[in-house]
Design goal:
With 277 residues, this protein is α/β, with parallel strands linked by helices. It has a single domain, classed as TIM Barrel (Alpha-Beta Barrel), CATH 3.20.20.100. It is 39% helix and 15% strand. The strands form two sheets. An eight-stranded parallel β-sheet has the order 3-4-5-6-7-8-9-10. Strands 1-2 form a two-stranded antiparallel ribbon.
Length: 277
């Protein structure tokens, strides 16, 4: 099992860039005070990864919070993503400039293709390769890519994606995809790790009681011990702090296996092979 001792721990991506294991996701976090307060609370707690996207509509708020935080730019890892309607080579380059302006950043740490839009994601990724080669992003990757999408992309790309960000949690533990990404040296990052709040699961409740933790903390610890990057979302400062209190206990191998057995291939979000947006 992976040994991670603190919220500040990082791992090297396939290009040598270091990324924090743990971060804050801001999906469905409102632009303005809500996202600014969430990012402020996360940074005060010690989070050093903030994950946003053009489609979330809150890049400007993230940028304002980063600037106001007083935390040095090189200490915070910022991810954003190109949305489906902007996919394609030239349109992706324009979309990136728009995101960079809204975030107020010269360089973005990680830029992702948000969804594998058929007929477009290869050209989109080619634009990401240019941004990477031009030094405007420190690492590039994809989101919501299945094994067959990755196989297709790897046949034509020059830069192996550093990250594949996907829905991953105990009810959808992505075993096959995790194994493929391990072989390809692509780090898997879990979105919606907390199953969109559907946490009333017997095994999780029992382990939470044993360790004096919450079911959410049990899942996030399971993520880390499996070597998964994870980005839980919250707008509540107390919950943001609670989610990060993961480093004073460790699940046993038997307990990890008991959570693994919860897998039902159940998605709370869209299916990457069947989406229309």
């Amino acid at each position: 099992m992976i040994q991670i001792g603190s919220i500040s721990d990082k791992i090297k991506l396939n290009n040598g860039v270091e990324i924090p294991w743990f971060g804050l996701g801001v999906w469905q976090t409102k632009e303005g005070q809500e996202v600014e307060r969430a990012v402020e609370a996360a940074l005060k707690t010690g989070y050093r990864l903030i994950d946003t996207a053009a489609a979330y509509g809150n890049e400007e708020g993230v940028g304002r919070a980063l600037k106001a935080s007083g935390v040095a730019r090189n200490e915070v890892f910022v991810t954003t993503k190109v949305w489906n309607s902007n996919q394609g080579y030239d349109s992706t380059l324009r979309a990136f400039e728009d995101s960079r302006r809204k975030l107020g950043l010269d360089v973005v740490d990680l830029y992702l293709v948000h969804w594998p839009v058929a007929g477009k994601y290869k050209e989109t990724y080619r634009a990401l390769e240019k941004l990477y080669k031009d030094g405007l992003v420190r690492a590039i990757g994809v989101s919501n890519f299945q094994v067959h999408h990755l196989e297709d992309l790897l046949h034509s790309s020059e830069v192996v994606p550093a990250v594949n960000q996907v829905e991953c949690h105990p009810l959808l533990n992505q075993r096959e995809l995790r194994a493929f990404c391990d072989r390809a040296n692509i780090k898997l990052q879990a979105w919606s790790p907390l199953m969109q709040g559907n946490l009333d699961v017997t095994v999780l409740n029992e382990l939470a009681e044993k360790y004096f933790k919450t079911p959410a903390q049990i899942i996030l610890r399971w993520d880390l011990q499996h070597g998964l990057l994870t980005i839980p979302k919250s707008v509540n400062p107390a919950r943001i702090e609670e989610n990060a209190a993961l480093f004073d206990f460790e699940l046993t191998e038997a307990e990890m296996a008991s959570i693994d057995k919860l897998d039902r291939h159940h998605r709370f979000g869209p299916d990457p092979d069947n989406f229309n947006f």
